[in-house]
Structure formats: C-alpha cells, structure tokens
Predict the structure.
Amino acid sequence: MDEKGVSPVIGVILMVDTIVIAAVVMGMLGGFSPPKRTYSISVTATQEGDDIIVTYNGGPDQDLVSTLIFSGTKSNGDEITWDNDQHGASGWVAASDTINSPEVGNYVIATN
C-alpha cells in the first residue's frame, strides 16, 4: 500500500503551463503594452445653402494642435473646393484646406 499521488515533477510542469497560458492570454488581450492616450478637440460642420462651414471649437487638448487639414469628396466623387476668401472669427483667413496654428473660431468653407 505504498501508493502516492501525482509526482512532484508533474505538479511543477502543470504550474509552469498555467503561468505560460496566463501570459499568452494577457499578451493577446493587450496587457503588455502601455495604454494609448486619446486626444480630444471639437470641430463642427454646418450647412448654409450649398456651402458647408467647418469651425474649429478647441477642446481640452487644443494646446497640442498645430495644424488642421480638411479634405473630402462630394457624392459624385469630385474633390471638395475650400474657399480661401473667408475670414475666421478672429479675422484669420483660411489659406485653403489647411489651418496652421488654429485658434478657436477659425473656419473654412467647402464650396459647392
């Protein structure tokens, strides 16, 4: 009657396997990479007639914004034309589809 349970070697192998499986699962779930930060700003688009006015409203991370670039296509596939004769709220002129050093209230107009 000298029966024993599972040998100590088998027990150690089972413990190591459990740790390896847990590490693989954590790796697949993204547990090994640092969390990515989400930045937040606000831009609104309103329609006036056939034109669409895109206004920069700032936001919690507005100090990190250096350039805004606007692009798009019409429903027929043509590129949108951005009007460069319009002034933003602070008298700033949109140079086309790009606003460098944007300030709250700057806007561009997508013309039809």
User: Anything to note?
Assistant: Helices lie at 8-28. The longest helix spans residues 8-28. Residues 86-95 have pLDDT under 50 and may be disordered.
